Each structure stands twice: as C-alpha cells, then as structure tokens.
Amino acid sequence: MVKAIRIEKTGGPEVMAYVDVEVAAPGPGQIRIRHTAVGLNFIDVYFRTGLYALPALPAVLGMEGAGEVVAVGDGVDDLKPGDRVAYASGPVGSYAEERLIAADRVVPVPDTIDDVTAASMMLKGMTAQYLLRRTYPVQAGQTILIHAAAGGVGQIACQWAKALGATVIGTVGSAEKAELARANGCDHTVLYREENLAERVRALTDGKGVPVVYDSVGKDTFMASLDCLQTRGYMVSFGQSSGSVGPVDLVVLNQRGGLYVTRPSLIHYTGTKQELRDTARDLFDVVTSGKVKVGAARTYPLAEAAQAHRDLEARATTGATVLIP
C-alpha cells in the first residue's frame, strides 16, 4: 500500500482525502514510478471540481510528476529500474507516492535537472514550448501579449519569448506580481483589473496591436484580448482560471480584423512518444542553457494537497507549486 490523494466525488478542496491505495505490478508497456516530487497545476482543480470530466470515480488527482522507475513491464526496453523520469500527461494519478504509467508517456530527466525542478516545469514548460514554438511561432522583433505573466506558465513563457527576441507585454493582478513578471522577462506589465488592457497595448504598440495573445485566464480577459490584436492576429486561449469563455459570435472575429482563435492543449502537441520527447528535449535544453530559469517551487507535503489547492485557487501562489510525497 502507498499513500495517495483520492477523491470520491467532485467538489471543493474538502473532497480530497489522504488514503492508502494499492499499486499493481506494471503491465505490458507500463512502468511503476516512485515519485519524489509531484507538480500541482490548475488543470487539477478543473478535474477536482468536475469542470473537466474524470474517467471514473474514485480517482487519484494529478498529471505531473518526477521520480525513479522501480519496475518495468513487458515490452519496455528503453527504461530500467533506477532511471530518473518525469511526465506531464494523463491519465490522472500523480498525487501518490507510487503509480503505474505508460512508458511512452514519460521522458528521461538529464542530470542537469533535479527532480523538484522537473516536476515543477514539465507541464508548464512544455506548454510554453508548444505555444511559442508551434501554435504561433514567435519571431524576433515581434511584440506579444502573455496573460498571467507571473504564473507558472507565464514566467517560463516570458523568459523564453525574450530569448527568441520578442518584446513581452504581460498582464498581472498586483504590483507584487508585476515586479515578479518583470524579473522574468516582461518588458511591460499591465494590471488588468485596474487598467484598460486594449488601450494600454495599443499605446505600447503605436496603435497597431499585437500579432498574438496567449490567454490562460479565460472569461475575464477573452474579449479584451481580441481588442489587443492586429488584423489577422491570433488569439490563443489555453486556459480558463477565471471561468469558461461563453459562446462567441464569429462575426466578432470579422469585425476585429479577421482574427484567428484556437483552444489548444498539451496533448495535441505530445500525442506520440517522439513528439513528447522532442518537446521535453527543447525545454530541457533552454533551461540547461540558462536562457530560461525555473524559479524555486513552493512545496507542500502531499498530505496537505487540499491546502495547496485552496492557495492556488485564491491566487495566493506565484510560479510553480510542488507536492512532496
């Protein structure tokens, strides 16, 4: 038996229980991993509340972790017990001391990256990779807008965009978060609760607007984000921390200049083993080179995952949060 955070029903943080669970021997194509660090992400909240449907209940939450392979199943020939690995994908189940996972969903972790750093950056960092490198490939000399610039994805994305030669405008919720965003590559910060976002962006871009907006906030910022875009600009909506975006009349996109809108997620860019490993390798390279620095994660014991969720939902955290089994 190992300890895990399991929910019997969806709801608030109070539905999360620290319980004993059984973990079987790995089947064909699987590994058993002993976690040393577990990443906490907003998508975990979506699953806990029922916004995103879980395959079944009861369920162990979590989609990101790092640790050591303790056993491999038949057909797994590129991993062995003792290997350090990390992952950021479904199915859920990372809020546990140990778990089973498909071998093609994990990546080897280089010696230059420690386990807590790996667990804190896999989902956020690979998200930044697909956003900046593939959904809308950022070019040197462009000015772009990144929402929640002081958040986990935001801090990595701002640094990475700067390394690509972009000028970064970032939205934040407080003066303290503005300072943090600027320390992580943001050239200009906007307090989106206090300032008119579109007016500020237009002023910073000589009235042109930006070619792309990366928006993880959702309901509270969606329409304002459209108003920040140039003609034929790209609205990349990849999260909804403020709630789901409601129905949008497509005529709005025409009226604002023939805009493009997409709602991607990491699985769309890491669906194959090769895509996953290429994405992770790009992330590891940019971190190892020093172009992107991953800040120290805030840590909680696994048993205190419910409090970690409360703090995350209250936006009382910045950067990454990691649970320690």
TrEMBL record:
RNA-binding keyword on record: no
InterPro entries for the chain: ADH-like_C, ADH-like_N, ER, GroES-like_sf, NAD(P)-bd_dom_sf, QOR-like, Quin_OxRdtase/zeta-crystal_CS
CDD domains: QOR2 (cd05286)
UniProt xrefs under Pfam families: ADH_N, ADH_zinc_N
Domain Enoyl reductase (ER), residue spans: 11-323
Keywords, sorted A to Z: NADP, Oxidoreductase
Protein name per its UniProtKB record: Quinone oxidoreductase
Gene (UniProt): qor-1
